[in-house]
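Need a sequence for this fold. Nothing fancy.
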């Protein structure tokens, strides 16, 4: 489902994200509402800021894809 640009603009502003962060979130299939919901409040000191959360999740997915691709290459004769 495509979300309205206004929702992405709101998430960008509230979560203090840049265009690259938004691109990563879209690539992973996140939606603007989930980004806004994951803004940590002062009582949630264990929670990462949204920007760092996106980057960490994106890096994990990239590592998994590389590992999967490497395993696929080794299996071919």
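Here you go.
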């Amino acid at each position: 489902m495509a979300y309205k640009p206004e929702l992405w603009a709101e998430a960008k502003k509230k979560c203090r994200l840049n265009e690259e962060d938004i691109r990563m979130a879209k690539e992973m299939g996140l939606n603007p509402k989930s980004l806004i919901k994951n803004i940590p409040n002062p009582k949630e000191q264990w929670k990462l800021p949204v920007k760092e959360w996106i980057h960490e999740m994106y890096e994990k997915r990239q590592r998994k894809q590389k590992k999967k691709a490497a395993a696929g290459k080794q299996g071919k004769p």
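For context: Residues 13-75 form one domain.
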